[in-house]
Amino acid sequence: MGATVLPLILLVSGCQVLDLGTGKQTDLSTAGNIQPSDNPIIVGNVARGDRFAKLAAAQHPKILATYGGEYSDPKLERMIARAIGRLTTSTDDPNQTFQITILNSPNVNAFALPGGYVYVTRGLLALAGDSAELAAVVAHEMGHVTAKHGVARQQKEAEANLASRVVTEVLQNDEAGKQALIRGKLSLAQFSRQQELESDAIGIRSLGRSGYDPFAAARFLQSLGAYTEFRAANTDEDMSLDFLATHPAAPQRVELAKNHARLFGAPGIGETDRKAYLAGIDGLLFGDSPEEGYVRGQEFMHPSLGIKFKVPAGYNIENNKDAVLAAGPNEFAIRFDGVEVPTTTALTDYMKSGWVAGLIDASVIETRINGVEAAIGSAQAERWQFNITVLRVNGRVYRFLTAAPSTALGVADVANQVTSSFTTLNDNEKRTLRPTRVRIVTVKAGDTVGSLSSKMVGSARPQELFRLLNGLAAGQSVSVGEQVKIVTDLGS
User: Fold this and answer.
1) At what angle do helices 131-146 and 274-281 cross, to 10 degrees?
2) Which helix H or strand E contains 230, and what residues bound it?
3) How far apart are CA 127 and CA 243, in angstroms?
4) Which of 133, 149, 152, 200 has its CA 20 to 30 A from that of 452?
5) Residues 361 and 371 sit within 8 Å (Cβ to Cβ)
6) What is the pLDDT of residues 394-409, one digit of tens each?
7) Alpha-carbon Rg of the chain, whole angstroms?
8) Which residues pair with 309 in a beta bridge?
9) DSSP per residue over 388-430, as a string?
10) Structural element, H or E, at residue 281
11) Residue 374 zone, left/alpha/beta (φ > 0; ψ -120 to 50; rest)
12) What is the pLDDT of residues 63-108, one digit of tens each?
């Protein structure tokens, strides 16, 4: 791993052709009036006779491993079966079968592949406000499939090899491949703007025909825009690399979605099925999975590894699969990860072993931080300066890389502030750490946005997150008797 890993960009991309499902059959016999299909939606049936689907099915174990596997929750799956089942009778191609898989990822995303594979993340389920919004997202993805957008792209990019090539590029281990993924430059994984708009039209047409509120698509697009801004707040991320930069501009796309919806009538028509939707997502895992540790405000805590540390106020901290990333003002950024290093290797020798580009050998010294064996050093690479700290705890080596522009002052102070907070968890902290989940509560007399958001756990900006999850604009209040989402570790 090199030192030039910055600027740190968090992917919140949408509509990509990268993710595959598990082939798990959904039991539709429990989904209200929906009857079991004579042609059950399983991988074998979806893929039969479809060479693209066969290629996709062959790759899905690798994809699941990359995206945290399938998120299993029978109650949630039944709700989704009810919400989505009615769409299958109103698509432009009623002969097309679909398989919908929930991915165990906190990112807000949905994916489609030729052959009828459609995937939603648990992060998207937390953001959606009702069954109509979920149906709008899935109808859009179904639109990509029925319009054969993936097929058209594959034909342009050497048909039968695309699916396996994309997977190979995403899953390669070299740093260049990882950076390509981080920076969102896998152009093969993106539908064109024209295809996105076409799928919006197809999806809203299906949404309206199925009896759902056709304006749900525009509502979710607005929520997605707000989510993107929320994730980028207090950082210097390049917004040109954001999801919305590779899709039609949010205002244009939202307005076009409203125009399609108006063909069915004025706002207020159609069903939202909000109560059933909220009941389905009550208890949904939110944010980090227990296996990856937890972010609590400005602090990262990992009960299995038994460690914790804190980043400065004003830094946006994200716990990704391979590393904890934090972006701060003035292009300052921090990366934290862990590696296996032989216990016989001195930390100063490891520091000089070649994994840090531009390391200044003379800067490397041995030290101790909070009683823990450590080594520190500095590096220069292109326009960046770096402070590197490695620590050894219970035989494992942890690495902090703090970066700033080469002309910036104070990088060592920021690095010292973070690394000096690194310590081990005590037994009580390990016992009491629990994952955060979406919980549905009913607004009571005296409740306000402020009082409800004060119950939120795991976010440095709880009131902003509360408004985002509940579709509340700035200044908008809650009403007694309505149901709202909060994120808490109570009742986990």
Assistant:
1) 90
2) helix 216-232
3) 16
4) 133
5) no
6) 999 999 999 999 999 9
7) 24
8) 300
9) EEEEEETTEEEEEEEEEETT-S-HHHHHHHHHTT-EEPPHHHH
10) helix 274-281
11) beta
12) 677 667 899 999 999 998 888 877 876 665 666 667 788 889 887 8
